[in-house]
Amino acid sequence: QELRPKSLDIKQEELGDMVEKEMASTSEAIEDAVRRIEEMMSQARNESSGVKLEVNERILNSCTDLMKAIRLLVMTSTNLQKEIVESGRGAATTQEFYAKNSRWTEGLISASKAVGWGATQLVESADRVVLHTGKYEELIVCSHEIAASTAQLVAASKVKAEKSSRNLGRLQECSRNVNEMAANVVASTKSGQEQIEEKDTMDFSGMSLIKLKKEEMETQVKVLELEKRLEGERVRLGELRKQHYALAGAYDAVEDGEVKPAPAPRRGILKKPPLAQKP
C-alpha cells in the first residue's frame, strides 16, 4: 500500500464519479476546440489572402479532421468503459467496481485528461500560428502528444476489455484514425511552413563583396551559437524525460495483475547528429 504512487488525492468511492466527470470534461474540451477552429477559419479568410490564406486553411482543416477523430475516439472509449464495468462488476455497484479496480481507474482518468489537454493545446498553437505569433513546430509537437495520449487511452481501456469486444475493435480503429489525422496535421504544417519560407526568399544580389563577407561571418557565429544551444537543449530533454519516467512510474504492460515497468529511454535518441563540414 505504501509503495503505490500517490497520484491522485481522491477517495476510492469518488473514483467512479471522477471517471465520468473527466470523460465529460474531455468531450466538452473537444467540442470547444472544434468551435474555436471554425472561428479561426472565418477570421483567417477575413484577414489573410494568397499563400498565407491557403496555408492557414490547409492547417485548420487538418486540425478540424483531427478533432473529429478524437471526438469519435472519446465516444467509443466511453462505450467500451461502460461495457467493461457492466461485465466485470457482478453484484457490485459501479462505484464499488471502480474502487476495487482503483489503479486501472486512475490510469483511465489520467489518459482522458491527457487527451483533453492535448486537444486544447493544439487549438491554442493553431491560433498562434494563424495570427503569426506562434511557431509551426508547436503544432507538430502537439500532434505527437495527441497520438501518444491516444495510445495511453487505448492501453488503459484494453487492460480490462474482452479481446472479442466489438467496442475494443472500434476503439483501436479510432486510434489508428487519430494517428493518421495527427500525421496529416504534421504534413500540412511542414508543407505550409515551406511555402511561407519560400515566399520570403533571400536576395543578396545588391550586396558588395565586403558586405557579403561580413554577413557570412555573422551567420557562421549564429550557426555555432545555435549548435551549442541545440546540444544543451538535447541534454535538458533527456533529463526531463528521466524525471517524467520517475514521477509517472511509466508502465508498458499489465498482465495478470502484474505491472511491468517500461524500459528507460535510450540515450541514443538524444545523441547529437553529426555537424556539417564548415569552410
UniProtKB/TrEMBL annotation:
It holds the Pfam family I_LWEQ. One of its GO terms (cellular component) is clathrin-coated vesicle. Keywords: Coiled coil, Cytoplasm. It comes from the Eukaryota. GO terms for molecular function: actin filament binding; clathrin adaptor activity; clathrin light chain binding; phosphatidylinositol-3,4-bisphosphate binding; phosphatidylinositol-3,5-bisphosphate binding. Residues 258-279 are annotated as: Disordered. Residues 207-243 form a coiled coil. It is found in: Cytoplasm. Its main location: cytoplasm. Residues 7-248 form the I/LWEQ domain. GO terms for biological process: actin filament organization; clathrin coat assembly; endocytosis. This is HIP1R protein. It comes from Steatornis caripensis. The gene is Hip1r.
